[in-house]
Amino acid sequence: MRNSVVLVVFFAAAVCSAQAPAPVPAAAKPTTTYHSDAMNFDFIYPSSFTAPKGEADQKAGAGCVSVPVAVMDMRTGFNMIFVKRFDGGCLGKEATASGLGATVVAFLTDTLSQFGKPTVNSDTGYEIASHSASVVTGSVKVLHARGDTIIYGAASCAISGKDVACFEFLSNDCPNVAVLAASGVKFTGGDVTPVIPAPLVDVCKR
C-alpha cells in the first residue's frame, strides 16, 4: 500500500510541476551508472533521474527480492526507472528462460495496477548480450486524474547467473518509453547494449 501511495503522489507532483523541456543535444546528456557485483552488470541511465527524497535508504529493501534502483525525473512529466533483483540463491530457485515471461508480466502489471486497471500485452523472448530475456509493454489510464491521463510502460527481465534482473521504464509520454528503455546495460565481459531494443517497445502502436 505504501508504494502505491508514493507512486500516485509522484504522479500528481509531476503533472503539477511539468515544464517545457530545454533542448539538450543527445550526445551531451550526462549519465549515471549503477554497478552490481551480484548481478554482474553496469546499468547506465540519464543522470536527470534521481531517487526521491526519503526513499534512497529504503528502496533496496531486504530479503530475496530487492529494488536497488528506483529513480525518477519529473521535470517534464511522469518518468520513472526501476531495477529489481530476484536473488536466486536466496530464493532457492533456479532461474530459467521459460519462467521469465511470467516474471516480467507480473512486474509491470503490479506497478501499473497502482494507478488503475492496466492493459498488459503478451511477453516476447529475446536476448540481451547473450543473456536470455523477456520483454512486455503495457499502459494504464490513471484513476481520478484530469482528462485521459495514461501511463505507459515497458519492462524486461533477464537471467544473470543465479539471479533474475528486471528493468522497468514508465512515462506519461508514450514515445519517451522507448527512449528510456534504450538505456544501456553492460554485463561483465560484454559491450554496452540497450536494455530493450526499440522494435520491442511497441506500446505506442497498440
How would you describe this protein?
This protein is globular. It has a single domain (2-19, 29-205), classed as 3-Layer(aba) Sandwich (Protein Transport Mog1p, Chain A). The chain has helices at 2-17, 88-91, 100-112, 174-181, and strands at residues 31-36, 41-46, 65-72, 79-86, 119-120, 124-128, 131-141, 150-160, 163-171, 184-187, 193-194. With 206 residues, it is of the alpha+beta class.
Sum this structure up briefly.
This protein has helices at 2-17, 88-91, 100-112, 174-181, and strands at 31-36, 41-46, 65-72, 79-86, 119-120, 124-128, 131-141, 150-160, 163-171, 184-187, 193-194. The chain has 206 residues and is α+β, with helices and mostly antiparallel strands. The chain has one domain: Protein Transport Mog1p, Chain A, CATH 3.40.1000.
Low-pLDDT stretches: 19-26
Q: State mean pLDDT (0 to 100 scale).
A: 86
Report the structural category.
Answer: alpha+beta
Separation of termini? 30 Å
User: How many helices in DSSP terms?
Assistant: 4
Q: Tally the structural domains.
A: 1
Q: What amount of the residues lies in strands?
A: 25-35%
CATH fold title:
Protein Transport Mog1p, Chain A
